[in-house]
Amino acid sequence: MSARAAELPWWADALVMPVLNLALAFLVSGGVLLALGEDPIECVQIMFNGAFSSGSGIGYTLFYATNFIFTGLAFAVAFHAGLFNIGVEGQAYIAGLGVALASLYFEFLPAPVIILLAIVFSAAFGAAWAFIPAYLQAKRGSHLVITTIMFNFIATALMAFLLVNFLKPDGDMAPETRTFAEHARMPLLQDVFGWFGLTMAQSPLNLSFVWALICAAAVSLLVWRTRLGYELRTLGASPDAAVYAGMPVTRLTVIALMISGALGGFLALNEVMGSQNRLTLEFSGGYGFVGIAVALMGRSRSIGIILAAILFGALYQGGAELAFDKPNITRDMVVLVQGLVILMAGALEHMLRPTVGRLFAGCSTTATAQEA
After folding, report:
1. What was the pLDDT predicted at 19?
2. Residue 40 placed within a domain
3. How many of the other CB atoms lie within 10 Å of CB of 202?
4. Dihedral (Cα; 255, 259, 264, 268), 10-degree rounding
5. Low-confidence residues of the chain, pLDDT below 50?
6. Quick check: helix, strand or coil at residue 188?
7. Cβ-based neighbours of 353, under 8 Å, separated by 6 or more
8. Residue 313 near residue 61, CB atoms below 8 Å
9. Which residue in 103, 242, 286, 299 has a CA-CA distance of 20 to 30 Å to 365?
10. Which run of H or E residues covers position 160?
11. CB distance 203 to 192 below 8 Å
């Protein structure tokens, strides 16, 4: 097959391929459900109803989606620059420390100021944790995947040390901070709606979701409408061309990863300040790794990332309902589906692409012949 046969229109690459990859992942998952003696169609209905049939279910779905929007955007910014940031998990984890410091030690300030400080601290701590791997990659040629993975482990050990020895209240056994003051928490959307006399079902969905949408719009503008975004995309497409054009490759590498770390750090706003209202061990919950699949499915574009994040949020929420209704199916089944989506959207992305490319090439040839 020629290389041209695998070329797809932009809309086919952005829509058709993700849908096919997702359908294939669900098909394989359906086979696993059949092997367990369950009806796949019934399971899909349960998951869909659990995620979207009630206000509370939608709230939980969007709450989980908020985490995935942040981590998907974080990975996408680095990916545009040709960098594979596996360290979003650790960067978000360290950012939780910044959020906790803002909520605990500045609680004497008004709520809007605390929220602003939490946003700044989460971005700063996440970016700072990404700086060292970025510097090692840019200056020393260290393998970014290895350094960011190792920094995830370092972040876990560091947070455990700080929580056990410094941050937990005296006399408490649990390695976690004290609960934040009421005004030092991210407002829930149900409370915000209540301010205007509107009602909303109870869920942990909070203003972090609005901030995630703002970040998605900002990333889209950055990547596609600014000089910095053009330079990052050039670096990702061809590092040699970036060097030939006189672009500061070292600085761009560091900037891309620090922006990525800052975006990943916002996950702590949703989890630490918006839901748990205290800093705990392992609050990041693997969202940083799932963000890779979200970015890949969304083709590293903001709108695609938002849609993919809602899909994974629905898998999380619907999977909880499925595990409750079907004792034979555990939450690990959701992890299996996520893994299959990652596999199809990442490692096996080009498995279906040649066939789809030939179909589009054949349709194009037929249309050209008819016009002639």
Report:
1. 82
2. no
3. 11
4. 120
5. 1-5
6. strand
7. 6, 8, 17
8. yes
9. 299
10. helix 144-162
11. no
Say which CATH number the domain at 145 has: 1.10.3470
The dihedral region occupied by 85, where left means phi > 0, alpha psi between -120 and 50, and beta the remainder, is beta
Q: What's this model's pTM, rounded to 2 decimal places? A: 0.92
Residue 256 lies in a domain: yes
- pLDDT tens digit sequence for 1-60: 334 445 677 777 777 788 888 888 888 888 988 988 889 999 989 999 999 999 999 999
Choose among 78, 269, 105: nearest CA to 186.
269
Domain extent for 156: 55-357
Instruction: Determine contact, residues 321/49, Cβ cutoff 8 Å.
Output: yes
The confidence score (pLDDT) of residue 5 equals 40
Within-domain flag for 114: yes
Flag whether 139 is in a domain. Answer: yes
Whole-number Å distance between alpha carbons of 329 and 263: 34
In sequence order, what are the residues at sequence separation of 6 or more whose Cβ sits closer than 8 angstroms to the Cβ of residue 17?
Answer: 8, 349, 352, 353, 356
- HEC-encoded secondary structure of 93-107: HHHHHHHHHHHHHCC
DSSP state of 136: I
For every residue of 317-342, DSSP letters joined together read HHHHHHHHH-TT--THHHHHHHHHHH
Domains held by the chain: number: 1
pLDDT value of position 52: 95
Torsion angle of C-alpha atoms 368, 370, 371, 372, degrees rounded to 10: 90
How does DSSP classify residue 174?
A: S
